Known about the structure:
- Two copies of one chain form a homodimer.
- Chain A is α/β, with parallel strands linked by helices.
- In chain A, 40% of the residues lie in helices and 26% in strands.
- The interface between A and B is large, with 90 and 94 residues.
Amino acid sequence: MRAEIISVGTEILLGHIVNTNTAYLSKKLAGLGIDLFYHTTVGDNPPRLIATLKAALSRSDIIITTGGLGPTVDDITLSSLCGAVDRGLVFEKGIEKDIAQYFKNQGLRKMPDDAKRQALIPRGALWFKNPVGTAPGILIKHGRKILIALPGPPRELVPVFETGIVPYLSKKGYGGEWIIKTKTIRTAGLVEAEVNKIVKDLLSMGPATTLGIYVHLGQVDLKITTKAQDEKTADRNIAKIEREIRKRLKTYIFGVDHETLESAAGYALAAKRKTLAIAESCTGGLLANRITNISGSSKYFLMGVVAYSNKAKTSFLGVPGKLIKKHGAVSKEVALDMATGIKNLAHSDIGIGVTGIAGPSGGTGKKPVGLVYIALADARGTMVRECHFIGNRQDIKHQASTAALVLLRSII
Amino acid sequence: MRAEIISVGTEILLGHIVNTNTAYLSKKLAGLGIDLFYHTTVGDNPPRLIATLKAALSRSDIIITTGGLGPTVDDITLSSLCGAVDRGLVFEKGIEKDIAQYFKNQGLRKMPDDAKRQALIPRGALWFKNPVGTAPGILIKHGRKILIALPGPPRELVPVFETGIVPYLSKKGYGGEWIIKTKTIRTAGLVEAEVNKIVKDLLSMGPATTLGIYVHLGQVDLKITTKAQDEKTADRNIAKIEREIRKRLKTYIFGVDHETLESAAGYALAAKRKTLAIAESCTGGLLANRITNISGSSKYFLMGVVAYSNKAKTSFLGVPGKLIKKHGAVSKEVALDMATGIKNLAHSDIGIGVTGIAGPSGGTGKKPVGLVYIALADARGTMVRECHFIGNRQDIKHQASTAALVLLRSII
């Protein structure tokens, strides 16, 4: 079974909204074992929509449209569907009843006249109740193909799809033969090209199981996707390649799926019953923010100081003014003193100090924007790393906080 | 001029990522007066991508692809472009030099062999430097049509498009008779229904100029969109409705377009030469992070303390242990003492204290998840606000930091 999605709406083509429906539907279809080959977005233009529908009918078995089911004249999906499959619109009393009920629930005694338009559906089509709006889901059987029209707002599309379309597709035996399952292996500490070199031969295994590389700022994800006849086979396929990846990337792997560097570091701190305190300069609170995004972080995170001014560094963290004068606020020496200073101040097991230049201003020839020193102090001693990051102010802050978390994880 | 966008990537068709590039490019093209008629997404499949490119060439003047420019064998955009316009790939020394420099900046002495693949471009194509990555932007002239290939990661796509493609399109006279211009008026302090009530009559003016309401956590944006024959008319259309909105919403408006609450507050602090220090508990560094996202914030932001443990609150900010015991760490009294404590400690003009329960655990019947106290201290005295937020841990942190910025702005 091959499917494709057609999103209808000039507002999408103008960039006024980000289309999240397609990502949602894509994931759902993969889960049902239905292959998705195309997404297309067209504006509120009947000839272009009809042409797109006809192209879709020529190459796919299931065509899903989203949007354009509202009560206004701009809403052209159903009339275009009629054009593509050569049918007329008929008035459906059951839908009118649902719409009237909807308005009654909303506290409106009388249904607006426009709303009645939404009770018109292509002759012979099935319709599926919309529990949170007035536009029902529509399904047309056309030869061996089916066309499905869903309302555009995500809060309406999701319940119509889940309560109406999914049970229909399952009952009628669409998809089902194959399921697609994915698992993401998350790494940090290597750049994309290095990870690529290590797993290169695994990237073109296909077709049942594939591996993809996805890069974020300072992180590289490996996504395993498998197509299998059942859950068990899918899990076995994934486990096989995951074992191989783990053998090669070892401790560069910090988690899977929804795990983050901050949750991995937090988990390790909690497990070893270690406490943490941090002193940030250029990351400006971002590192503390990421650490405290983890529920339960109050167990191991004692305090953070955002020492933006030199005075905060000296009078607060005990970094000697002379040291700052001699080496500059952005230096190995100051990073180390910040780490030790906050560790002593908070009586924590581990202290982190971060100082650098996030830009866009403040850089010099010797100390360019993107230069960041990250220091760690614990009972065993101290260490410091010099990093060079590229990007805008927020990119540099993010990469610096990621590098600090990578370093932290490596010593717990 | 008719344009269309083709997004390349199986990960999009599997729903693994939400495609934000198309919304960004759509908006940019509208601003250039270039009509966009289609978005299409195809997987990493050369025959399907070539077929899509050929269909696009048959109906559009400007074709923009996103994604599939990486160094791996999965990256098929350039070879497919070559297939669609019947050209070969050639090695471009200038790109190799840029890539080598990129890796040098990243601290890698040697460029990985695979990375060299990204220096291969279609014969006769132009290329545009990628300031934050290794895949350059590519532009092919094909008869009277042009094909543009952009890297997939938004943080690379945006600078390549803005620094390379936009100047090229403008210089070469692409762009159309009509331009579409938008301006966003940003408000905070009112909920959507309140804003809606105030501007309701302006929402259905159309068709040349329209107004839309967009809601974020703790903020409501009003987006003015106008279609006009020239910049001047567009500006006049926008100014007319903006005046009306400003008359009605007054100080609830904190900025326009890319301005944020943190930039507005920072601007006000700098103008009044006031300094700020903050003590955060439940926001965990997010408030400091937002404030320090603004370039130049070191002028007014002296320091922040993330006082996560009670000990940090007492021994550091001078909040009496008795006070915490009597009222609890989440209380008006403690918030006020945190604000005064950090103000005294940092010798700043203004101090902020935030304490609350971000959840998901830690709530009680009397003090539920989402309860947050925000206090301010300055030369004139102190104030405190009790807030109740709904959402997950990060939503609550975000709303609390937004409310703190709204309060800060109101007293500067």
